[in-house]
Amino acid sequence: MSPDGERARDVCSRHGNRPDELIEILHDVQEELGYVPEAVIPVIAKAINLSRAEVHGVVTFYHDFRREPAGRHVVKICRAESCQSMNGEALCSHAKASLKAGFGETTADGQVTLEAVYCLGNCALSPAMMVDGQLHGRVDARRFDEIMNETLSEAAQ
């Protein structure tokens, strides 16, 4: 078994190999590995006595689970109604052009993964985005560039 498979099996064991813990197991696997590799799906399925299809269905249904490694930084832009009404589409267009990556993609240099989310709970400060878990509000193109420049320059140090 691969090292990733061993780690996935250990995560399942920590959750008592309980099928009702599947979502928590997947979150923990992603936390440890950075994503949920296709190769660990049968390992998880066997450990918790579910079919591969059931585990695969959960991984592909929820947008929080990555099936490929993320970039060094994860940028989430809210696409919900409040953010859309506050010029969120312009922010999305600018982010995609600036990063040269679409939603669900990682920049060519592997530095940034861009993700669409459907509410960050920051509606009063729309449009909102999150970078590496840090929430930002009232983001326009200029503020996006400032945040990204700061994020990428900190990483270079």
Characterization of this structure:
The chain is of the alpha+beta class and 157 residues long. The chain folds into 2 domains: 59 residues, no CATH class; 84 residues, 3-Layer(aba) Sandwich (Glutaredoxin), CATH 3.40.30.10. 48% of the residues lie in helices and 13% in strands. The protein has 7 helices and 5 strands. Strands 2-3-1-4-5 form a 5-stranded mixed sheet, with helices on one face. A hairpin with a 5-residue loop joins strand 2 and strand 3.
- The beta-strand count equals 5
What percentage of amino acids are in beta strands? 5-15%
Helix content: 40-55%
Tally of DSSP helical segments: 7
Task: Characterize the main sheet.
Answer: 5 strands, mixed
Query: Strand sequence of the main sheet, in spatial order?
Result: 2-3-1-4-5
What is the helix/strand order?
HHHHEHHEEEEH
Q: Describe the global form.
A: elongated
Rg measurement, Å = 18 Å
Spell out the key features of this protein.
Formate dehydrogenase subunit gamma; Glutaredoxin; 157 residues; five-stranded mixed β-sheet; alpha+beta; single chain
Give a concise summary.
It contains 7 helices and 5 strands. The protein has helices spanning 3-14, 22-33, 41-48, 52-61, 81-85, 88-99, 141-156, and strands at residues 73-78, 105-106, 112-117, 129-131, 134-136. It is elongated, with a radius of gyration of 18 Å.
